[in-house]
Structures are given as structure tokens and as C-alpha cells.
Design brief:
18% of the residues lie in helices and 19% in strands. It is an alpha+beta fold. The longest helix has 9 residues.
Length: 161
């Protein structure tokens, strides 16, 4: 990971997932929780970046159980599922704050003439909101509700009173 990259910390008191306010759309979340029914978007390689799958692969309970034995799934794989908008703690002020943070962090990653090969770009929530800037940072975003979304670890904020 690159030093100096700021991490986005979602409110740990609010889980990301279905809620009574769920508003599912046709847009796909490129950083969804590891759960049965999601799709495997790619895996992280030792260099720390995401290598996208040639096509999204269905995630099963068996996959989650087997893959969990190797450690934190969110730091090893990336999953996609329909964007939940208001049903997700990352949806704030009418946008996915992870996509916004990724776009802001894009300048800290090498610029390339080509965007990463991504099979969900046409329906990706981050691309819909932020365009190519989010795509440039996307391979560096990890799913970890306890720590960060983009960049290196920083001390956790004080708990809410």
C-alpha cells in the first residue's frame, strides 16, 4: 500500500447490508460483503492490488467457509452485489462514500492510459458516480468495516458516545 493514502472509516455502529430502508438498484457495488449470493469480482495478489476475475463467479456458503480458513476474506478477495443505497452505511448524501474516497485517492496511484479490466464497469456504482478516477483507485480498495477502505492503516477513531 502507498504511504500517505488516507483511509475511509465507515461508522462501525452501522452495518452494511439489508435493512428496512433497503433500496436495491441495478447498479453493482464493487466492494460488497463476502456472503452467499454475492459474486467474486477478483483477488488480491501479494503486491497488494486486485486482479479482476475474467467474469464474476457466484459465491456459495461452501466457498466462504473454505476461503475463510485462509484469513480475512475482505483483504484477500473482492465481491460485488447490487448496490443497496440507503441500506448500506456507506451511502451518504446521495452517494457511495467509498467511491467518492476512491476517486479522491486516485492521484496517489500510477496513472495508466487504460483502465483496469473490469467486468462490472457498465453497471458499477463507483464508475457511475465518479467515472475513471474511481476505476484507477479501485484495485487498491479493500473491504474492511473495522479498518479502512483506501490506503494504509491509521489509528482507529474514538468510539461514538
Amino acid at each position: 500500500m502507498n504511504p500517505g493514502v488516507r483511509r475511509l472509516r465507515p461508522d462501525p455502529a452501522v452495518a452494511c447490508g439489508p435493512s428496512p430502508f433497503m433500496e436495491e438498484t441495478s447498479a453493482m457495488c464493487p466492494s460488497a460483503p463476502a456472503e452467499a449470493g454475492a459474486l467474486l469480482l477478483g483477488r488480491f495478489v501479494p503486491a497488494g492490488n486486485l486482479v479482476f476475475a475474467a467474469q464474476p463467479l457466484p459465491v456459495t456458503v461452501e466457498f466462504i467457509e473454505a476461503a475463510s480458513e485462509g484469513g480475512d476474506l475482505g483483504k484477500r478477495f473482492r465481491f460485488t452485489s447490487p448496490c443497496l443505497k440507503h441500506g448500506c452505511s456507506r451511502w451518504q448524501n446521495g452517494a457511495c462514500i467509498v467511491g467518492v474516497a476512491a476517486a479522491r485517492a486516485a492521484g496517489q496511484f500510477p496513472e495508466s492510459a487504460e483502465l483496469p479490466a473490469c467486468v462490472i464497469r457498465a453497471s458499477c456504482r463507483w464508475f457511475e458516480q465518479q467515472g475513471a478516477l474511481a476505476c484507477r483507485a479501485c484495485p487498491h480498495v479493500i473491504y474492511d468495516m473495522r479498518e479502512a477502505e483506501v490506503g494504509v492503516t491509521e489509528p482507529a477513531p474514538a468510539p461514538y458516545a
